[in-house]
Amino acid sequence: MAKKEKIELTPEERLGLEEAKKAKRKIFGETFLKACALFLAVVFVYSVTYVAIGGGSGGGAQSSDNDANAPASNEAEEAAKAINEATKEAEKAGYTWKRSASMTNLNVGGATFTNILNGIIQIVDPKANVESVVGGFIGTGDKEKTIPKGADAAEEIGYHGGSYKLKATSLTAADLKGLKVEGDTYTFTLENVQTPKKDGSNALSRLTDDIVVQDEVSAEIQQQVGDKVSVTSLDGVYKNIQVKVVITDGKLVELTYSYAAEVTDLALKAGVTIHGTGNLTATYSDFVY
Question: What does the alpha-carbon distance between residue 257 and residue 42 come to, in Å, rounded to a whole number?
């Protein structure tokens, strides 16, 4: 079979063929881009729909619970209502308050910085040091107080009593993560929260005022060592917040909560930053109505 003779194109024909190829590439490119745009639009809409359905809680550290954003059940609604009503009534009753707090992993940047800061503190109080000063405002140690019925709980508790006294809770059904109801006992966790305020804007502050905030820390340190040291920033996360509530016939029998507070940034004017973890458990019991 004879070999097919190669056809030589004129310059004009070659130019026309190239223009035709460019036209095809342009059509393919536009079609491809439109397809990509449509695909991305579908993905975007799906993502927005997923977020809308799945939900998401703003602010603070996120809970690790898989059902953190699940709709609140009727059981949770009823539990939140029962707890809020019971604590409102118990706030006026007599009770026993116990609190145990410890501080671990305190770190101010090594021995050199610790010694420098201790030297500043001990100018004012020779018996004080970094650990005692920091421990002062997180209330380290074991404490217990019996508050008579009708008494001012904050005054009876004394030191930081306004933060430690039982408060009427304002929990929502959505706050009660992993709720379990067994007879009169409710157990649940609260979502982790980053640098919470005592304003009811987060689940922890809807349960208690036992939260460390910057202005209180600054006031505490200055009360102990004067203006030699002041707080310039305070940031941390409250996590592993566990709550147990016992209510019998509408009356609060026991309220216990515990948490770990990890201070990620406590900066002092003295030029150091303190890191550490505080672990706390508080219990209110033996109510007298």
Answer: 46
pLDDT, tens digit, for every residue of 8-19? Answer: 667 766 776 677
Q: What is this structure's pTM?
A: 0.68
* DSSP string for residues in 224-269: HHGGGS-EEEEEEEEEEEEEEEEEETTEEEEEEEEEEEEEEEEEET
The helix or strand, by DSSP H or E, that contains position 276, with its residue range, turns out to be strand 273-288
- Tell me how long the chain is: 289
The pair of structure tokens assigned to 230 is 């002041």
Q: How far apart are CA 190 and CA 174, in angstroms?
A: 9
Helix H or strand E segment including 112? helix 111-124
For residue 201 the two structure tokens come to: 């804007």
Nearest residue to 225 (alpha-carbon basis) of 266, 269, 262 = 269
